[in-house]
Amino acid sequence: MMRNFTFSSRPKEVSEASDSFLQCVVSALGEIKDPEMPTVSLAELGMIYDVDHHQGRVTVKLLPTFVGCPALHLMRSQVESKLVRIEGVASVDVQFVMDESWTTDRITEEGRKKIHDFGIAPPSAEFEPHKALSCSYCGASDTEVVSMFGPTACRAIYYCKACNQPFEGMKFI
Amino acid sequence: MNQAEQQLSNNYRTALIDLLYQMADDELTIGHRSSEWLGIAPDLEEDIAFSSISQDEVGHATFYFELLSELGEGDPDKLAFARTKEKRQNARVLERPNHDWAYTIARGYFYDVFDHIRLQELLQTNYTPLQKGVQKILREERYHLLHMETWFERLGVAKGEAKGRLENAVITIWPDLTDLFSLGRSNEILRKEGIFPISESALSDKWTQQVKPLFDRTELMWPGTPHVMTGNGRLGVHTSDLQQLLDMMTEVYRSDLIATW
After folding, report:
1. Domains of chain A, first to last
2. Chain B residues with a Cβ under 8 Å from any Cβ in chain A
3. What is the C-alpha separation between B215 and B195, in angstroms, rounded?
4. Is 50 exceeded by the pLDDT of residue A6?
5. 3-state SS assignment for residue B19
């Protein structure tokens, strides 16, 4: 998931020190949750594209889930306030990049499980807008699509005919 | 150094900027009109759907305004809220009021088909920042297109009032469609510079190939290819409906120009 680390040209001892610093940054990043699905971290959603640092200045590149997601600003300030507390961090620059398209395929297995634990059915593996997901509450597959548009850009609404309840699912992107 | 900071020729830069304004203004305008259904859509699901679509469209507009900003056009918020009617390059059909549900669906379907073709063509653009964004935006837009197409068909196969309203909507919209396919004053340069690969007439033909079969399937009369240009929004020629939209959309922004939101 993490890519483009830029340590190769530095002396070994500096590189080792940098590595442990980076580990600190990466593990702090791993604790930051999605504002709209607080059981899942940004890392588990596959949103962290790159982490880099130079003399205490940390740059984090995130992939936006939806281009117009209103939670992006909140995520930026969460990352900034979390990382700035780490010893040795002088500044934090959070960038949203489109170098690669975020897709639901980037969500880790652990992430899918936690989305389900939050009560939302994890996304399908392909664009199948007419096919309903299994019920996120009872697991039944006797379900139907209510609407491909839900309370947030990334969610759709389904109905379970087994437990007679509406439920949400994450839509394939 | 990113591509925006590199030396782009004047011709290239001007044409690219024109195209980005067309796209940003299209998305912001239809995004705003979509938001006007909030609270009054025919059912709860559509209330949510149109809010979600509106949010996506305004988000796409923000992306295009940010690309313009990287090209030296200034602050994205100002581009969205402070430009006068004459500076806007959206197609005129998008600034029209929502009228009724049938009008909204028909216009939404016609625009989404067009936008989909434009985005697919832009997968070939040689301007990398746009090409990357378009890949992502296409993955979102297909849900909008599917939604509008489903509704158009539903109204089209219905009898009675639904069908009658859809027929009226088509008649009202048709003369407004011509500038949708216009690429503005940079038309030739866009193709020559490799920014946008196809001509206006090819764009219009592709649109007809996609839309006409749905007319046939729903037994709607096909009014012929839209051809009489009544005014070109791509050149800043707009109707008074755009002023009404801007007055509403920018009311809060104008109330305190130096506020930090």
Report:
1. 12-104 (3.30.300.130), 119-170 (no CATH)
2. 45, 48-49, 51-53, 55-60, 62-63, 129, 132-133, 135-137, 139-140, 142-143, 146-147
3. 32
4. no
5. helix
